[in-house]
Design a protein that fits this description.
This protein is of the alpha/beta class. Helix content is 36%, strand content 22%.
Length: 459
C-alpha cells in the first residue's frame, strides 16, 4: 500500500486524528513512506426526514421543495436551498445512489413538480445527485472548513476535494489550507459531476492530481459513458504529468466475499491499461470482511496487468507546455528502450535534490521500459512520489548538496545498492538537476554497476 485515504465524510475529528496518527506509527514499518490522503466530504445534497419510508413507482408524480417538511409520497424535502433557482423544466434529480430518478415537469414559487422515471424507496437523509451544471453550492461547506483546519494541522501529503466543478474550486481549497498555515499539501480533485468534465482542462492545469470518482460520476452521467470518461481523464492526466487515481467499486464484492468477481478483476486490470497511476479501495478495506486479502489481490492484478502494458508512443503524451525537464524525460525513455532492445538491464535513477517530484512525474508519464527509482532527502516529497506509476521512491537521510556531479551520482547509486534496488548486472541512467542551480540545466549520465565495482567506486 502506497497511500492511506481517510474519509472525512464519516467519524469525528478526534477519530480522524487518532487514525492519522495510527497510520503514521505503522508507516515506520515501511520506511516511513506511506502517504496519507484526507478526503473532505464536500457539498452533499440529501433528502429530509420522512413520515415513513415509501416506494415511488415510474410515472408517479411528486413535489420536491427545499423547505423543511416531513416527506410523504406527495411531497418531500431535498436539502438544497437554491434548488428553485438552479433547476428548470427537464432537469433530473437522482435519489439514493441513482436508484430513483425524477424529472422536473414544472416549478412554482415553493416547489418542483416532478415525474418519476425510475422507481425505488425514498427514506430519510438519502444522497441526491443533480447533474445540472447550474448547481450553485460552494465546494467548501462549513464542515469542510473545520476539517481543512484540522487537515492543515495534521499535514498529510494529499487532500482529496469532493465535487470539484471548476479550477476556481481547486484554488478555494488551496487558499483555505493556506489560511490555516499550510501551503505544502497537494490537492487531488475528485471528478464526480458533468460540469467537471466540461472544465477538465482548466481543472487539471490547477490541481496536483485527479481522482476518477466513479460512484457519483456514474449517477450523474449515463453508466455507459463512465468508461469513456475514465479513459479520457487518464490520458489527459498522463499528458500533463499529474497522477490519476481510479476509484469506486473496484473489488466491491470483496466487502463480503474472499475473492472478487471476474468482472472486477478485469476492471482493475483495464484501469492499469487506461493509464491510471493508482487504483483505490474504499468499502472493501473500510468495512469489508477481507481488507488484507483485497489489497493482496488488487496488487496481484496490477502486477499482472503491468506485464502486458503495450509500449507507448511517447510523443502522444507530450504536454501542452513542453519544457526542458519533459524533453529530457522523453530522451531517457528512448535510452531505456534502446538498452532493452540490446538486452541490457536498465534502471532509471532520478535524484530529487533539491526536493521536487517534477522530474519523477515527467519520467513516469511516458511509462519507460525500466524501473524508476527516486531518491530524495525530503520525506514528504518521497511520500508524494509514491503515488506515481512505476516509481519506487526512497528517502535518503543525510543527502547534501554536492559540488561534484559524479560524487553525487555515485552517492545515490551506493544508497540504491544498499537497499537492493540496483543489481550487479544493471546499467543506471541517472537524471538530476544541474549543479549550477534551478532552471539552469539538467544532467543525464549512464553507469555500469559491474565496472563501478571493479574500479572500487562503490563500497
Amino acid at each position: 500500500m502506497d497511500c492511506a485515504r481517510l474519509n472525512f465524510s464519516h467519524g469525528t475529528q478526534d477519530e480522524h486524528r487518532a487514525l492519522f496518527n495510527r497510520v503514521k506509527q505503522l508507516s515506520v514499518l515501511n520506511s516511513n513512506q506511506v502517504a496519507i490522503m484526507c478526503d473532505i466530504q464536500g457539498p452533499k445534497i440529501r433528502t429530509g426526514r420522512m413520515v415513513a419510508p415509501f416506494t415511488i413507482a415510474p410515472d408517479d408524480l411528486i413535489d420536491v421543495c427545499p423547505n423543511e417538511v416531513l416527506g410523504t409520497p406527495q411531497l418531500i424535502q431535498i436539502k438544497y436551498a437554491t434548488m428553485l433557482n438552479d433547476l428548470d423544466k427537464g432537469d433530473t434529480i437522482f435519489i439514493n445512489d441513482g436508484i430513483v430518478k425524477l424529472r422536473v415537469l414544472s416549478k412554482s414559487a415553493i416547489s418542483l413538480h416532478c415525474i418519476c422515471e425510475a422507481g425505488g424507496i425514498i427514506s430519510d437523509h438519502k444522497g441526491c445527485n443533480i447533474p445540472s451544471g447550474n448547481i450553485s453550492l460552494d465546494v467548501i461547506t462549513a464542515k469542510d472548513e473545520r476539517d481543512l483546519k484540522l487537515i492543515a494541522e495534521l499535514n498529510p501529503e494529499y487532500v482529496a476535494c469532493s465535487f470539484v466543478g471548476t479550477a476556481d474550486d481547486v484554488r478555494k481549497v488551496r487558499n483555505m489550507l493556506a489560511k490555516y498555515g499550510n501551503s505544502e499539501i497537494k490537492i487531488i480533485s475528485k471528478i464526480e459531476r458533468p460540469v467537471a468534465l466540461q472544465n477538465i482542462d482548466a481543472i487539471i492545469e490547477e490541481t496536483d492530481g485527479v481522482m476518477v470518482a466513479r460512484g457519483d460520476l456514474g449517477v450523474e452521467i449515463d453508466t455507459w459513458d463512465v468508461p469513456t470518461a475514465q479513459k479520457m481523464l487518464c490520458k489527459k492526466c498522463n499528458k500533463a504529468g499529474k497522477p490519476v487515481i481510479v476509484a469506486t467499486q473496484m473489488l466491491e464484492s470483496m466487502t463480503a466475499a474472499p475473492r472478487p468477481t471476474r468482472a472486477e478483476a478485469n476492471d482493475v486490470y483495464n484501469a492499469v491499461l487506461d493509464g491510471t497511476d493508482a487504483v483505490m479501495l474504499s468499502g472493501e478495506t473500510a468495512m469489508g470482511k477481507y481488507p488484507v486479502e483485497s489489497i493482496k489481490i488488487m496488487d496481484n492484478i496490477v502486477a499482472e496487468a503491468e506485464k502486458h502494458l503495450p509500449p507507448r508512443t511517447p510523443t502522444e503524451f507530450l504536454s501542452n507546455h513542453v519544457g526542458m525537464t519533459e524533453t529530457v524525460a522523453l530522451s531517457v525513455y528512448h535510452m531505456a528502450q534502446n538498452f532493452r532492445d540490446h538486452n541490457f538491464n536498465a534502471k532509471i535513477l532520478a535524484i530529487a535534490y533539491p526536493p521536487s517530484a517534477y522530474t519523477a512525474r515527467m519520467l513516469s508519464k511516458f511509462r519507460p521500459p525500466a524501473h524508476v527509482i527516486t531518491l530524495s532527502n525530503n520525506l514528504r516529497v518521497a511520500r508524494e512520489i509514491n503515488l506515481l506509476w512505476g516509481v519506487r521512491s526512497v528517502f535518503v537521510e543525510g543527502m547534501v548538496e554536492e559540488d561534484d556531479l559524479e560524487r553525487r551520482n555515485l552517492f545515490c547509486i551506493q544508497k540504491a545498492r544498499e537497499i537492493e534496488l540496483l543489481g550487479n548486472d544493471d546499467h543506471v541512467i541517472c537524471v538530476s538537476r544541474s549543479l549550477l542551480g534551478k532552471h539552469l540545466g539538467s544532467t543525464t549520465s549512464v553507469y555500469n554497476i559491474q565496472e563501478l565495482e571493479k574500479n572500487s567506486l562503490l563500497q
